[in-house]
Structure formats: C-alpha cells, structure tokens
C-alpha cells in the first residue's frame, strides 16, 4: 500500500517511520521477519554469501561482503543494522578469528584468551605495502584523531590503527609536507595549513 499509494501517505511519513522503528524493536516482530527470510538466507548461503549473528536483533541474518582485504561490511536483512569490521586472527595465536568494529573505541580484546590487540598488532596485519627498514619510510598521520604515523596502507585504502578510520587517499600538506588521511584534498593547504600546521597564513600571523 505504501508503495502503490505513496502520494496518499506522503503527509504521514514521520508517523509511519516512528511506528516502523517501534515495530522493529519488538522481538516477536523480528522473529516473524527472520522466519519469513529464512528461505532467502538459505539460498544466499548456498550461493556463497556468509552470514554473521547480528549484534542488533541477535539473528544470524547479517549478510557479509568483503570490501578490501581484511575489511568487511555487513548488513542485517532482519533489522537493517549495518557496519564495517576488520577480521583478523588473534595475535596471541589462540586460534580465534576476531571481528573488530572499524570505529573508534572498539573492543580490542580477544574473547577467548583475553589478550589485547595492540596498535602494533593491527599495523603488522593490515599493512600490505611493506618496506625495507633500511629505506626511508614516510609516516602517514591521521587527521581524524590527530595521531602521528598511525596510518598504514591496506591494499587500495589507508587505515588508522588508532581510531580505525579509513580513506581512499593520503594527500600531502603543501606547507608542512605531512602525509595524512582525513584532512580533505588539501588543495589550498599551503596557505590554510592542515590538521598538523597553520600553513603560510599562520606563519605570517606569528610574525
């Protein structure tokens, strides 16, 4: 009805959205939805799609898509909850596969052995570029969390090992020459600066 008579319901979109949100919060409603989707989920599993248990509704209905290397995205077919996570093996080698939410403040503790995943651990497993320690290596900073040298390249993207933010490029500030993610395209950074400097304007102001 909402699709066929959309013009008739336009004035009630806010109310409909509110009711929809409350309905999705009802466990029984979600259970019915999951039961209805079981054949579709089974077919997708047979075709090769992996599913995780959704942290929102608790059903094994979060379809997984590998985005880049160890970076995955999932979206629940029952409640719609989505998110991005990093899949790595426990650095303590206890055999556990860890799913770390790709956002600041994520739990970095292995639920099996209790070991902590450090920034260094993340850098070791995420860095796909590698470099000769005898060669000069330009550190990449993160403007999202103001961390220095915390970013590694993971295939075609750059990930901060401190806050887990990511970007498709790592431009260089035209004033301080700091390479970074999260600072925009830095087109006018010679004058305006970046997260890590005040640019030419700041230098002139100090004078």
Q: Spans with pLDDT under 50 lasting ≥5 residues?
A: none
Note the main sheet: 5 strands, antiparallel
Total beta strands: 10
Basic shape: globular
SSE diagram, text form:
Blueprint: H1 6-9, H2 13-24, H3 27-46, E1 51-52, E2 62-68, E3 71-76, E4 82-89, E5 97-101, H4 119-126, E6 140-142, E7 151-154, E8 157-160, E9 166-167, E10 179-181, H5 189-192, H6 199-206
Parallel strand pairs: 6-10
Antiparallel strand pairs: 1-2, 2-3, 3-4, 4-5, 7-8, 8-9
Structure notes:
With 207 residues, the protein is an alpha+beta fold. The protein folds into 2 domains: 1-117, no CATH class; 127-207, no CATH class. Helices cover 27% and strands 21% of the residues. It is built from 6 helices and 10 strands, in the order H-H-H-E-E-E-E-E-H-E-E-E-E-E-H-H. The strands form 3 sheets. The protein has a 5-stranded antiparallel sheet, with no helix packed on it. It is globular and about 65 Å long. The mean pLDDT is 88.
Characteristics:
about 210 residues; alpha+beta; five-stranded antiparallel β-sheet; three-stranded antiparallel β-sheet; about 20% strand
Write a brief caption for the model.
With about 210 residues, the chain is of the alpha+beta class. Helices cover about 25% and strands about 20% of the residues. It folds into two domains: about 1-115, no CATH class; about 125-205, no CATH class.
